[in-house]
Amino acid sequence: MNILITGAYGFIGTNLSDYLREHHTLLALDVLKQESDVYSHYYSWNDLNILPWDNLDVVIHLAGKAHDIKNKNGDHIYFDINTDLTKKTFDYFLQSKAKQFIFFSSVKAVADIVEGDCLTEDAAPKPIGAYGESKRKAEEYMQSKKWNEKNVYIFRPCMIHGPGNKGNLNLLYRLVNTGLPYPLGSFENKRSFLNIQNLSYIVEQFITQKPESGIYHLADDKPISTNKLIELIAKTANKKARIWKINRSFITAMAKIGTFCKLPFNAQQLQKLTENYVVSNRKMKSAIGIEQLPINVEDGLLHTLNSFQNTTKQ
């Protein structure tokens, strides 16, 4: 197939293109061109009107403004990129002969906090903050249009990881690698992750099998506790896992004091570090007819964490 990947040189685009390159012809759309023999052609965002839209089979829209936990970006940037740019790209797709469109939204478009055991596609969207809201606005726009005979998929992945990723998992790795203890061991929370290889596998299955259009949550088959994640990090770093199970009431009291005194460790930070965020992938697996993904959560995390170790040594 002829596949256009927007945000082609980002973390996901780089890994996904390497996975798809053997069986498909790939075209890159991004801000600046980078050296790569994976893509047959490169286009900038100024080239939208001259792209060979009618010769495309699939558009994978990865381009977007990532969630900034430090809140350094103005809200308008999220809506300019995550909403308006998605609208513009989707309109070109609808007017073309291309048959499939995959939009990478986010679980944050539906929930900042998971209510109940896990987050499913049936949950009523309650995004909090400009990142989640901008992604949800893009979803709403796409759903308001007539897709006719085209296949349109809105993917909501949870936290994606893999070699080359520089997100929160990398920061946690560096913290554990210092030898400092993890003081929140008394909170047995669980979170869902998504390995980049599993993500790539899912994308290829969708573009080849062409299941029913709609919204699909993406996650590995099982969630993992933060304590177990700390143990895996320590294992790859050849260190002893130092997990302190300090009384939860004491930790909560310290967080409240932090909120009152405007300290870095506060109630909001504690919630983010200790909340459960489990994402169901049942609908996605049913759509492509599988019982489990190729890579289990622990093997995938170990592969990613080992890549962090190699980076740290350089």
Structure description:
By secondary structure, this protein is of the alpha/beta class. Helix content is 40%, strand content 14%. It has helices spanning 11-20, 75-95, 130-144, 168-177, 196-209, 226-236, 248-260, 267-274, 282-288, 297-313, and strands at residues 2-6, 25-29, 41-43, 58-61, 100-104, 151-157, 159-161, 190-191, 193-195, 214-218, 224-225. The strands form 3 sheets. Strands 3-2-1-4-5-6-10 form a 7-stranded parallel beta sheet, sandwiched between helices. Strand 1 (2-6), helix 1 (11-20) and strand 2 (25-29) form a beta-alpha-beta unit. Helix 2 runs parallel beside helix 3, helix 6 packs across helix 10 (297-313) and helix 7 packs across helix 8 (267-274). The longest helix has 21 residues, at 75-95. The chain is globular, with a radius of gyration of 20 Å. It starts with a strand and ends with a helix.
